[in-house]
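FIELD: query
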Amino acid sequence: MKRFLIIAMALLPLMAMAQARIGIVNSQQLFELMPEKAAAEAQLKALSDRYHAEYEMLRGEFDKKYADYQTVAADASTPETIKERRMQELQEGDQKMREFERQAAADLDAKRTALTKPLTDKLQAAIRQAGEQGDFDLVLDTAVTPVAYVGHRAVDITPMVKALLGL
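FIELD: result
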């Protein structure tokens, strides 16, 4: 009798797992289909283009100062003080461009996050809703977690989520 109870206790978790409903979804595929994604990408492209134009302006100023420095440096009659001042201007210009690049990249990342977070939140809510509607115990996102094998009992809920998103 004790043996039967021990075997039953050991098999109970396995029986519960056999009854678990597992769903799979590809969030990346759904994210790509969202119309809001195109609008977000357009805003990011416009901002990136503005930063690029500003950088090109800074680069043009730097190139002009560099050409001036080369002219001054090649002239033997130019005092060392002027050459040093021009070299310092070049170093400051280089530092200014590097700082601008760093700040522009940070701004673009922040904007990307601000634009995509509502989309990912909406997508996650739809996945959660599909999981609840389908009474799934577990939903795996194949875009985030590599899945080596999906058995015939796992259900692809991507179409359900797609419908909930109106795609």
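FIELD: remark
The longest helix spans residues 80-133.
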